[in-house]
Amino acid sequence: MSSLILAHARYQALEQIRVPIGLLAGGLFPAISMLAFAAPFVGDDPAASTLSMGSMMLIGGMSAALIALSISVAQDREQPWNPYLRTLPAGPLPHFAGRLLTAMALMVVSTIPVTLVAAIFTEADLSPVRLAGMIGAVLAGSVPFMLIGLFLGLMLPSKAAIAVSQILFFPFAIVGGLMLPPQVMPGFLNVISPYVPSRGGGELVWWAAGGAAPAALPLVVLACWTVVAGVAAAWAYRRDEGRRFS
């Protein structure tokens, strides 16, 4: 089974490499935001610039998990190769596990532009241990967004997946405290912020970046979003299978 998963991951990674700009697209927006909004104001503060770098890294990971994954799944469903894969006796696990591995690789790649900007224009802590912890937190915090991306890709045609994933992405990023620090957000946003998955992911990344220990409520909510999104993605797969192959 592991060899099948790696084979699917390799195939999907090659598909991504054929369009190189797609590998870095998820990291360009957070890198530009880091350069425009973080570097001029907190670039001389190692702690603040490291926290800002963590937020931007998570934004890049969310983009790869939610937007890129939903679009790729929806586009694959429209290709004749996909029905053939669905008829193979291996079942859905190798295909989707390989897809998730590819998405996680894209998340890691999306952190590169932000890290380069932080290294050149700020005093952020770029020690290997710190970076490894932050990348691990990005991967952990992006799990529900990968599952939401799978759900959208299985439910929507590609054109609709592009629009819906982007519509969801920006409110998640803003309300989760990734665009603006939670301490400067309006009061009503602070009330609802702990109940979106991006806040739980942010708490993990900020902790890995040297901030305070994460609060319990956002982590519980993050776990709940992960379970619900996983159930929804599994249901969407069965629904799509029933409609297309029954």
TrEMBL record:
Its main location: membrane. It is found in: Membrane. It comes from the Bacteria. The keyword tRNA-binding does not apply. It is a multi-pass membrane protein. Signal peptide: none annotated. The keyword Transmembrane applies. Residues 8-197 form the ABC-2 type transporter transmembrane domain. The chain crosses the membrane at residues 21-42, 54-75, 96-121, 133-155, 167-184, 204-237. Keywords: Membrane, Transmembrane, Transmembrane helix. PANTHER family: NODULATION PROTEIN J. This is ABC transporter permease.
